[in-house]
Amino acid sequence: MTRFQSSLRLALSAGTALVFVAAGTLAASGFVWRIYGEVPGMELAHKVASIAAWAMAVCVLAAAAAIALPVALRPADFRGKLVLVIPALLVASTAKGMVFQVAEIGTVGDLIRVPLIGALSLTAVWIIMSGLLSFVAAMVVLQRGAPDAQSQRRALRSLQAASLPGLVLGLALAGALALAATHPLSKPEVFGAPLGGAPAGPNGGGQAGAPAAGSGQGQTNAPGAPVTSGAAAAPGAPAGNGAGAPGAAGGGAFSGPASPLPAMAVGTVLFFLLLGLMGYALAQAGRAQVDATLDATSAPAAASGEVGRALLAALALVTAGLLLSQLVRPARDNPPPQEAMAWDTPATKDLATRACMDCHSNETVWPWYTGVAPSSWLTVLHVRRGRESINLSELNALSARRRDRLPDSLERAVTRGSMPPFDYLLMHPEARLSEAERQQLADGFKASLAER
Q1: H helix intervals, 241-345
Q2: Which residues, 6 or more positions from 316, have their beta carbon under 8 angstroms from its beta carbon?
Q3: H/E/C letters for each residue in 293-314?
Q4: Could you give the angle at which helices 42-72 and 122-144 cross, rounded to 10 degrees?
Q5: In this structure, what are the phi and psi dihedrals at residue 338, rounded to the nearest 5 degrees?
Q6: Residue 327, Cβ neighbours under 10 Å: how many?
Q7: What are the sequence ranges of the domains in the chain?
Q8: Per residue in 21-77, pLDDT tens?
Q9: What is the pLDDT of residues 174-192, one digit of tens each?
């Protein structure tokens, strides 16, 4: 391996680590963004960090693609082609996951929970896993069969391009940390929330109750970052699961054993260290490129038909993956209703059935595609999250306080147009409500609940 290739490997390793550290830092500091959102300059830092995080992730992924794609086009028999297309297929999978994250597809529901970071959605886990595997595949390619010199230069340029948004992101994190650490709290009452949960909303989950799947389900749109519940999210902005902390001194800076500021500070310092390491590696690679002609083994020119064979091999691998995924079959159930809604009119019931009841009741309709992965995984997560948020078939489970506040909460959720979520509407176009229908449903919810 040449000095250039060694430096390129180090730069790609640091760049990949930067993306994951940035995502983790943004997620762990979600409470900071929410609580200090009204501090002058905090919203700007939030937006800058969001944009910079995505730009940096795209550049690092482009570097991996520059390494993986030429390998997929090398001449080989079909068995060899199955191996050669794996790196490119993993990069494409990561890119697809990032697109889904932006489009809010697969971002509803908690697949797993991670300490400090919070809940991870299906799409977040997908990005993390495929991103890590893409990095490993790129490292193997550079170690065992480096692509041609031109492809390596493209990877270098992509990593160099990632340096600028990386620096901007680091400065945005440092600026937000400074604002949060020095500014008096504008909302000290929120620190009465128990650790691990946002201040209880009307539905008891840190957010206003909503009539459709994904109610109150914010997402961290930062690349690879977890989707967590409890806040509306901007790209790269961690929603957080309300990493609640013990009460802080009224009006003082947020502190205490559960404060997210230390985690944010550690993440920011680590981010700058990795950014410096990537800068060093890029400088070394640049000098190696100038001092000597790259002596990496040039990949043979792609033979006619290699693109088609590569696509066929990728299709075979994807098909095999889909078949294996059918082995994971989450339970689909409809528990018996306990205390269901008494609708004021049939029209209200019809609107609620169209837009809400599949996910917020025990009357879920399970079409055939909900038994086929990955659609089955998405649907079950929608339903699980919806029933946890508010189950219109189990109103008896609500506390008196929540029942009193439920009509106003449902009205806000319906009239704001955030429900149902985008990926639910893709498969259920009948759930799209006009403004007049939304107002009619909100009024119907209030009238139905008033009669109880």
Answers
A1: 260-291, 306-325
A2: 82
A3: CCCCCCCCCCCCCHHHHHHHHH
A4: 50
A5: -105, -55
A6: 7
A7: 3-185+195-323, 346-450
A8: 998 888 888 777 888 878 888 889 888 998 999 999 999 999 999 999 988 888 888
A9: 998 888 888 766 444 444 3
